[in-house]
Fold each of these.
Amino acid sequence: MFQGQRLVLRTRLESDVPILHRDLYDDVVGRVRTDGAPWIPRPVTNSPFIVKPGDDRSAGVAVFTIADPDTDEPLGSTLLWGIDQHNRSAHIGLALRPVARGRGLAGETLALLSHYGFRILGLHRLGIETLTDNEPMIRAALAAGYTREGTIRQSAWVDGSMRDEATFGLLAAEWAAGSRPDGAPGSAAV
């Protein structure tokens, strides 16, 4: 578990799945903006939020539930995906439930994931891809020290049209030099 000021990143519990499925997967409008696959109706028993045996770092993914530190209520889901041990890189995925949006939790989540990726996994680079009109995620990435690296033109099929994606990256040395939202060096306790 990784403790922040207003949230924790912890292992996914079976009891998290119905909440995350209802608020993040069954929100079709939101889901088609964040997932590279088409939305199809799924029962909670086949939710993409279920962590199955083998869904771990050896499979190139590390999955967390974002939770309230006082109540343990799930606030969202986040993961490192495409973990590449040879090139020491990974990508970040993040989704907050509607009740958790607009509170600055994405930036704090990115800070904790950066700590995990750089200090625990020994990665060299973390990347984020998001739609160019996803202003909250763009603000969170910049606040967490990520650099906007470019635009991938018309790369995402979203709700009937092609959309541009913005790419962001953070290197381990940048993070260690203090690119965290609180200004603390990368070695700060988590």
Note: The two ends are 9 Å apart (CA to CA).
Amino acid sequence: MKVLAYDVPELYADAAGWKTTVVDESMHMTHNFDILADETVLLGGKEGVKRIRYIDGKWKADESFTDTPAGEVREAGNLAAAISPMHGNAVVVFEDGKPVTIDESLNQGHALAIADGKIFAGWRSPDKANKKVGIRMYEKKDGKWQTTVIDDNKMACEDFKLADLDADGDLDIIAAGRATTNVIIYWNK
């Protein structure tokens, strides 16, 4: 499986002007990536999570990351997290380079975001315990990860984005559910 970077030509419509560079071809199955600052990509796949940097005109993998299988991957500040495995049941945070599972009750985890030191995760198939779908927020307080329910069975979350929609300085969640055929805005009040 090749992960490619596209060089954008001056004219988008110039099909011949689009050139590609191989970023990585070591994984058999990838699902998602996060573009970080300083020309770095966080790539999640069956074989694990890689941080790949563009250095001296070449893409180079940081071999020190993790072999934890992942679908969704995100990193913000000093916090990195993943849904593990691909379309999996676990929310994993990477602390001091080691994977720590903070929740393993999801079913088909498919949405992930990090903001303000908090991790947000959504899943799209009913979980085994309560037969529910939803969105949760995880925050570390007093050395322990605590969970807050954002959505309790209204959203079979396929994906979401965080944005300050009402310009109050707080991030709101815009979520889409394919199985529930809905879009919901969760206002941060």
Note: The radius of gyration is 18 Å.
Amino acid sequence: MEPLQIVYRFKLSGRQPEHVFALQIDPETALFADPEPTSPPEWTRLEFHQCSGCPLAATETPHCPAAVRLASTIDRFADVVSFDRIDVIVETDERTVSTRTSAQQGLASLIGLVLASSGCPQTAVFRPMARFHLPFSSEVETAYRIASMYLMAQHFAAREGKQKDLDLKDLALVYRGVHQVNVGLVQRLRAATHQDAIVNAVVLLDVYTSLVPAALEEMLDEVRPAFSALLSQAPRQVPRMGDAPGDPQGDAQEVSSQATE
């Protein structure tokens, strides 16, 4: 299966050339499909401001997977300030999304994707979001996607005979682990670079990490009216092919015939 390609283009006002990041994502695992960069900088070593709760050991994993993947991003934004206005274009096989935003907002979207697919065990929970990446979604859209992702995971758990959490009670625990990564990563980046746009992009991601669990129910209540039909009506019994009254198979053939005329 061919890797998914997600291309980020950053166009900085009055600066050339544009910064292009072409990410290759494995469609099955949502991990990076290309090999890790060779000779990563010293600040990517696992024990350098290692995140609280990190399950990795330096004897087996010498470098932080998230830091290694972020290293090339840092080098290319040395002269960018957090609130510089930039044009960001994100290209996938399905769509192209463009926006004009602050440097830290644009970088936060890219960094969030990188963290999810980097191989960091704490951010692995967001790989489904990376697999179906949708940049620059609103807070309500993000809440909807997160709840949908989490509940789909519970569906898979139920199919496998595991305990499921349909009340979203444990979702806060998921975010707690991601918060630890954000805190550790900010400490690592502040010690490694003076580029505020990169650091503030991670800080911005952490704001979302704190906001979404706290306001999830409230944000989901905003979209609840759209579910009125699903909530008020029992599923209708769909007749099988050939059942009376009528002949659904014949009806389907008639529709197909009309479509080809």
Note: Residues 196-223 form the longest helix (28 residues).
